[in-house]
Amino acid sequence: MIGLILFIAVMGFTLRRSGLTWPERFVNDAFGTAQSVLYRPVGAVAGFFRDLGRLSDVYKENEELRRTVAKYIQDQIRYNDIASVNERYKQELEFKQRQEQLFSYKYVISQVIASGSNPYDKTIKIDQGSHDGVKPNMAVVTVDGLVGLVSKVSEFTSTVMPITELDSTAPDTIQISATVSGKEQQVFGIVDYDKENGVMRMSKIDENANVAEGDTVVTSGQGGVLPKGLIIGKVLTNQVGDFGLTHTATIQPAAKFDHLYEVFVVMTPDPDQP
């Protein structure tokens, strides 16, 4: 009871006082100084561990961002590839429909499954064969122009000889009869490949024919081998030919032989069938 009475008395005395005694001030200052000394290192240590936790979170976020960016790049590449393929298919479909409306030919699309890397064998293999109606000497084209002729046919594949590899000196060679498109006066000639100079040429052009740089050379349909209207290339130069009686023009092939994905086999109506 005495202790309780003393405690209540001291509490009442303390609450009524407006200031602190010097022992209390001394104790307060001592504790404040100790706290100020300890607060900074303790705060630094606590901040260090907080920063470690934040660094771990930042590292995880960066890893997630890297994965997201990598996936985005892959998706972008895939999208660009699909968009490019779709655009190519669209152009090929429009070309097929346009050509079949102009002529009574059937254009059968084929995938290029092999292209000869051997400098002595630059033939092209496609995934269409006799089972699909492909026959030797059929023309093979792209949207850009004439690629070559079917040289060998098996059941489900065929080999295509590019026009740049046709040997004009071979006894069984096929001569490409050509004409110049858009001329009022028809211009005829024979197109072959000059391996010595590495260019295509159109020879036996009449000396009075009007052939100029940039003219489009197409198949004439004469000779019964190639159908007419297939683009061969553009005229680069035109000069006097043998004995000065005819002219010979050099031609830049229209087809791009180093980027072949799909080609068309041109099937013409068989005159022997009703």
Automatic annotation (TrEMBL):
Residues 112-266 form the Rod shape-determining protein MreC beta-barrel core domain. Gene3D superfamilies: Rod shape-determining protein MreC, domain 1, Rod shape-determining protein MreC, domain 2. Pfam families: MreC (PF04085). The keyword Coiled coil applies. The keyword Transmembrane helix does not apply. InterPro entries: Cell/Rod_1, Cell/Rod_MreC_2, MreC, MreC_beta-barrel_core. Residues 55-99 form a coiled coil. Keywords: Cell shape, Coiled coil. Belongs to the MreC family. Involved in formation and maintenance of cell shape. This is Cell shape-determining protein MreC. It comes from Cohnella hashimotonis. The gene is mreC.
